[in-house]
């Protein structure tokens, strides 16, 4: 049986929002996502636990920073952007909890790996393109007034 394997998350210039603080936080986020992936790939429960905690802590910090800017800049898309953040936090916390369940079968593990891949790569990349770039643009426009 082929082992479930995660594709790492790589930063590309297309993901740049044009605001340094957002981009550098996204790069840190990617690093922490890849640490979770490595831990899951080697299937080390202690490492999975610690890397998930390390990631979730930073996700909450990063979303909080973005949301502070949305409030400060009276950003009109704040409600939907925050909702998107809340969705991700719930999903990633749920995956963390499920990975931490003792004695998960190989089948369940494969499902979790697939969900993890979708959430931490597709969702995150889509969120950057569809939400964060717009936020960065709005901040830059207000700053240039
Ligand atoms: Fe965001």
Describe the structure.
By secondary structure, the protein is an all-alpha fold. It has one domain: Four Helix Bundle (Hemerythrin (Met), subunit A), CATH 1.20.120. Helices cover 77% and strands 0% of the residues. It is elongated. The structure holds fe (ii) ion. Fe (ii) ion (FE2) binds next to helix 3 and helix 4.
CATH superfamily: Hemerythrin-like
Helical region count?
4
- How far the N terminus sits from the C terminus, by CA atoms, comes to 59 Å
| CATH architecture term | Up-down Bundle
β-strand percent reads under 5%
Count of domains: 1
Please give a handful of descriptors for the protein shown:
145 residues, mainly alpha, Four Helix Bundle (Hemerythrin (Met), subunit A), binds fe (ii) ion
Give the helices and strands, then pairings.
Blueprint: H1 20-42, H2 45-72, H3 78-99, H4 106-144
Helix pairs in contact: 1-2, 1-4, 2-3, 3-4
Bound molecules: fe (ii) ion.
The site of fe (ii) ion has 6 residues, from helix 3 and helix 4.
Pfam family, one: Hemerythrin
InterPro entries: Haemerythrin_Fe_BS, Hemerythrin, Hemerythrin-like, Hemerythrin-like_sf, Hemerythrin_metal-bd
Keywords: Iron, Metal-binding
């Amino acid at each position: 049986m082929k082992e479930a394997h995660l594709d790492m998350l790589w930063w590309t210039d297309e993901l740049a929002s044009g605001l340094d603080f957002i981009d550098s936080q996204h790069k840190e986020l990617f690093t922490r996502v890849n640490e979770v992936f490595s831990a899951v790939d080697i299937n080390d429960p202690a490492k999975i636990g610690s890397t998930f905690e390390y990631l979730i802590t930073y996700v909450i910090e990063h979303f909080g920073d973005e949301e502070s800017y949305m409030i400060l800049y009276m950003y009109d898309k704040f409600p939907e952007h925050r909702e998107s953040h809340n969705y991700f936090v719930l999903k990633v916390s749920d995956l963390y909890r499920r990975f931490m369940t003792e004695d998960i079968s190989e089948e369940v593990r494969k499902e979790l790996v697939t969900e993890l891949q979708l959430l931490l790569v597709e969702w995150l990349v889509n969120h950057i393109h569809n939400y964060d770039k717009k936020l960065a643009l709005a901040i830059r426009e207000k700053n240039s007034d």
